[in-house]
Automatic annotation (TrEMBL):
It is a multi-pass membrane protein. The lineage of its organism: Bacteria, Bacillati, Actinomycetota, Actinomycetes, Actinomycetales. Pathway: Quinol/quinone metabolism; menaquinone biosynthesis; menaquinol from 1,4-dihydroxy-2-naphthoate: step 1/2. This is 1,4-dihydroxy-2-naphthoate octaprenyltransferase. Conversion of 1,4-dihydroxy-2-naphthoate (DHNA) to demethylmenaquinone (DMK). It comes from Trueperella bialowiezensis. Its EC number is 2.5.1.74.
Length: 291
């Protein structure tokens, strides 16, 4: 029987900053435009967090039943590691999606923009078919596309929109920044799994690029994200000051990845990349009060 720690590992706690960070950025942009609503920000964070947990459980289930995790180098997963039955893990995924839908419905009701329900439904569908279904797009190297769309633009611009009723340029630039760091998070996770994913036919972008170019792509994503943060500083200078620190941190992480770390040694980089994304969001939010 799976322990609480097993379920926390299955929820991929190290990746959860990817869900909260765009909400921080989107709320920061709302503050810049004098339209922040903390109730709506908390609801948006709840939706994003529950969707991320749902994605992680869905991936655990789908990869497990496909046998992708048979030769896994990272921490054992619930389904592939035999810690929980596939049916239970699948139920956990759909329970997370259902809770996200409920919280999202409350947020939509507050905004009165009922068309946002369609956006939420698209997010759930994309989350499931990342590794689920007969032709999962995550196995085709398209996972980063899903990440930057839903954990970059939808989460960031959506957060700002539900608070201000607008989608200013800062939200799109900030969404690009956090989306790219989320893509880097996925990239370093997949760099670790290149040997086993190649054997199981999971052709992630890291597999398609190959080890050397995937490591280079990781660094380029972080550099581009830093550039987005500095762009926000053009009109809101306190953000630029914080982004200098983010850029230095990103450079250190890129150097660690380029050094050739493999297997479990990359787990620390995975965690720190998630913290980097969280730092990006915190910088934008806090600096927005002084801009």
């Amino acid at each position: 029987m799976a322990t609480i720690n097993d379920w926390l590992e299955g929820a991929r706690v190290r990746t959860l900053p990817a869900s909260v960070s765009p909400v921080l950025v989107g709320t920061g942009v709302a503050v810049m435009h004098d339209g922040a609503s903390w109730v709506r920000a908390l609801l948006a964070a709840g939706v994003a967090l529950l969707l991320q947990i749902g994605v992680n459980f869905a991936n655990d289930y789908s990869d497990g039943v496909r046998g992708t995790d048979e030769f896994r180098t990272g921490p054992p997963r619930l389904t592939g590691g035999g810690k929980a039955s596939p049916q239970v893990v699948k139920a956990a995924a759909f329970a997370s999606f259902a809770l996200a839908g409920l919280v999202g419905l409350i947020l939509v009701a507050l905004t009165g923009q009922w068309w946002l329900i369609a956006v939420g439904a698209a997010a759930v569908i994309a989350a499931w078919f990342y590794t689920g279904g007969t032709r999962p797009y995550g196995y085709m190297g398209l996972g980063e596309v899903f990440v930057i769309i839903f954990f970059g633009y939808v989460a960031t611009v959506g957060t700002t929109y539900t608070q201000t009723g607008t989608a200013p340029w800062e939200a799109w630039v900030g969404g690009t920044g956090v989306g790219l760091i989320a893509c880097a998070l996925l990239m370093v996770n997949n760099i670790r799994d290149i040997p086993t994913d190649s054997l199981s036919g999971k052709n992630t972008l890291a597999v398609r690029l190959g080890d050397r170019r995937a490591r280079l792509a990781y660094g380029l994503m972080l550099a581009a994200a830093t550039a987005c943060g500095l762009t926000l500083g053009i009109t809101h200078w306190p953000i630029a000051a914080g982004m200098v620190a983010i850029g230095l941190w990103a450079g250190l992480l890129s150097a660690r990845v380029r050094s050739g770390l493999t297997g479990r040694d990359l787990i620390g980089v995975l965690r720190d990349t998630g913290l980097l994304e969280l730092g990006f969001g915190v910088v934008v939010l806090l600096a927005s009060f002084t801009a």
